[in-house]
Amino acid sequence: MNAVRVCLYCQHPNAVDGEQCERCSMALPACEASVQARKLKRFQWFCLGLTLFCIVMFFWLPRDFY
Ligand SMILES: [Zn+2]
């Protein structure tokens, strides 16, 4: 894995293993890839919950509705 984190202050690309910018030594933001992975995981759980909700409603609601 050779992703880089770009410094928000000087736009210098830093290696992932490092908490500070190599050039201006400001604190780096969280790794973008991990943030995106967390967002994707939350979205997957949301979809799973929505699917389960639909299945429950499908069996729970009366069928002779019309
Ligand atoms: Zn910097």
Question: Which keywords apply here?
Answer:
single chain, 66 residues, mainly alpha, two-stranded antiparallel sheet, 1 helix, 2 strands, 44% helix, 9% strand, binds zinc ion
If you had to describe this structure to a student in words, what would you say it looks like?
The relative contact order is 0.12. The protein has 66 residues and is mostly helical. It is built from 1 helix and 2 strands; from the N terminus they run ββα. Helix content is 44%, strand content 9%. The radius of gyration is 22 Å and the shape is rod-shaped. The protein has one domain (4-60). The longest helix has 29 residues, at 32-60. A hairpin with a 6-residue loop joins strand 1 (4-6) and strand 2. Strands 1-2 form a two-stranded antiparallel ribbon.
- Termini separation (Å)? 57 Å
Cofactors, ions and other ligands in the entry: zinc ion
Supply the helix-strand structural class. mainly alpha
Low-pLDDT segments, ≥5 res: none
DSSP, total strands: 2
Shape: rod-shaped
Helix content: 40-55%
Radius of gyration: 22 Å
Q: Tally the helices: what do you get?
A: 1
The overall average pLDDT, rounded, is 84
Number of separate structural domains: 1
Strand content: 5-15%
The profile of the biggest β sheet is: 2 strands, antiparallel
